[in-house]
Amino acid sequence: GGGYSEYASSIDDILEDEEHYADQLKEYLFYAEALRAVCRKHELMQYDLEMAAQDLASKKQQCEELATGTVRTFSLKGMTTKLFGQETPEQREARIKVLEEQINEGEQQLKSKNLEGREFVKNAWADIERFKEQKNRDLKEALISYAVMQISMCKKGIQVWTNAKECFSKM
């Protein structure tokens, strides 16, 4: 009878089913990759924020030292001032002015970076939640149908072997 063609078509069915599940898994992998990229971007944003904060803190300290004339940290500038005499009050005023402008700018930047970071996290979270809900539904369905498929594959497999055996025994 049609032993061999039956055998071939049930193999095709099995392969087709397997491919469908492979595609679903691929989607998960893409998602995991996307998630990693999001985390990396967040880390970079955090790092950027910390650098900006550090820069701001050091400018504030410089400004304070200039204003009060006390140097809390060892610096090359402090040394050269000691060696080559003080700068004029005008020069110092000018430097303080420049620093104050930079500090204002830095504070604005820090604020906007902070805001950006919070916005980014909020949006990323929303995306993740959406995906999780969708995927939990999909995954449950996929797992159930995968189990069903495995069972039917076993049955098909047994069928395939019995068909094949008949096939070969007829040769």
From TrEMBL:
One GO MF term attached to the UniProt entry: phosphatidylinositol-3-phosphate binding
Cellular component GO terms, alphabetical: early endosome membrane; plasma membrane; SNARE complex
GO terms, biological process: positive regulation of autophagosome assembly; protein transport
Protein name: Sorting nexin 4
Species the sequence originates in: Rhinopithecus bieti (Black snub-nosed monkey)
Gene giving rise to this polypeptide: SNX4
